[in-house]
Fold this sequence. Notes:
The chain is α/β, with parallel strands linked by helices. Helices cover 42% and strands 20% of the residues. The chain folds into 3 domains: 8-243 and 446-456, Aldehyde Dehydrogenase, Chain A, domain 1 (3-Layer(aba) Sandwich), CATH 3.40.605.10; 247-431, Aldehyde Dehydrogenase, Chain A, domain 2 (3-Layer(aba) Sandwich); 465-493, no CATH class. A hairpin with a 2-residue loop joins strand 1 and strand 2. The radius of gyration is 25 Å and the shape is globular. The termini are far apart. NADPH dihydro-nicotinamide-adenine-dinucleotide phosphate is lined by residues 142-147, 151, 169, 171-173, 201-202, 205-206, 209, 219-221, 224, 227-228, 242-245, 276, 317, 369, 371, 397, 437, 442.
Amino acid sequence: MHAPGVPRVSDGELISTNPATGELAGQFPVADADAVGRAVERARLAAEWWAGLGFAGRRARLLRWRALMANRITELAGLSHLETGKPVVEAVVEAVSAIDHLDWAARNAKRVLGRRRVRSRLPVAEFSARLEYQPFGVVGVIGPWNYPVLTPLGSIGYALAAGNAVVSKPSEYTPAVGQWLVDTFAEVVPEQPVLQAVQGLGDVGAALCRSGIDKLAFTGSTRTAKVVMAACAETLTPLVIEAGGKDAVIVDTDADLDAAAEACVWGAFTNAGQTCIGIERAYVAAPVYDAFVDKVVTRAGRLTVGLDDADLGPITMPDQIATIRRHIEDAVERGGRAVLGGPDAVRPPYVHPTVLVDVPEDAEAVREETFGPTLTISRVSDAEEALTRANAAQYALGGAVFGRRRATRIAARMRSGMTAINSTLTFVGMPTLPFGGVGNSGFGRIHGADGLREFARSKAVTRRRGPSLLPAMTFERTPAHLDRIVKATKLMYGR
Ligand code: NDP
């Protein structure tokens, strides 16, 4: 008997089950390296057709897909609930965000990537200049299981809007949701396999890296990101990496503590803490520390845990429970105190909300990604110390600041790709903003205009529009020309 939620391959099929009940979520043929290669070949032809539709043709089709998802959001959320165990309401919120991103990417691709004139400069004024962003061709997307709709679509939606075909490798924990996305796309774009899925375990992802794709978008752990980057290096395949996080909140003395506690509890415990931008650490200025801890514990203590109608669902990846347990036990052994939960909160497949205080800064619970419903709260003398400690992590994905007078300045100095002021995680639902990390959290950006450009390469074109006044780029320049160029340079730049 296999443990619930642990994916297994049987008779060439990947079998996915609910992490709490073991109920079947779906089963799919596993792709081998040849099948991955064939999918990429098919995608190459599809990419030509898709690129040929132009921005308007793609926009119309992507908006139809968006409409399908919106109309069938309950079905999608139900499937995600079945496969990951996450509460239906969380699955709905995730899908809403994904739909909004798709809408924005479809509507804005032409404005961001379309051909435009750019200004010339005086020394080359005889040439006009044009810029456009062309699709790469075939983009591979490797995704995690924690947000199986929003996370892959943050790459897939933007890559498609930019004119690429996509071959996606869903996490082995969420193949059914990955397949649903592909199948529904094919309902609105039946002509060509513009979006395909290759199913299987990590080796299928590895095969995708080596399959001749033109760009890879990887979302997952920092550990796997390094393996993936090494594989892509063999063929100089460019990639964008969205990896792990250890996000912090800073609570300043002038923060609205009720609002801070409410947002912090949501940021830490949503999706049972299985969130790359989940809040795992809080640094709180001494004068408001005790009140903040009380308010967090009160709110987090009210959260319910279970499969149906609960605030927190099970831990989707059973292996992760050992890491969560180790981080909690290590924190307590090293002098930390559990003011809510603690080692007994780990009751597989569930982990109940755990709030730890007085944990040493070098403990795993403060340094490593826990990826569970735990939060450490540390007392700091002021916002300056909070920043130093928050910025000391090897990860730097998102973060948050609560406060009034200094909040904007603190946010700017937080080492992260995104920081929310007086809220948590909100930047991920903002399609106009880029999303991505620093350091061990990865590089490159998804979402927003930067996210569209991530899936396109710039193409620059100059065109002569008249004779050269300062003919520098020709062997036919004369000493008089050179004299004129030198004089002009001094005139233009010499002051
Ligand atoms: P993993 O790194 O374990 O897996 C990510 C994906 O990579 C999966 O599809 C996995 O396939 C695949 N994979 C595994 N081995 C290889 C390989 N050798 N070559 C190519 N692909 C491979 O991460 P998780 O799925 O556990 O996701 C959780 C992690 O993702 C956390 O660290 C979290 O912070 C991060 N994350 C980051 C986000 C961001 O935007 N920055 C967003 C969401 C999550 P398989 O599942 O079959 O093993």
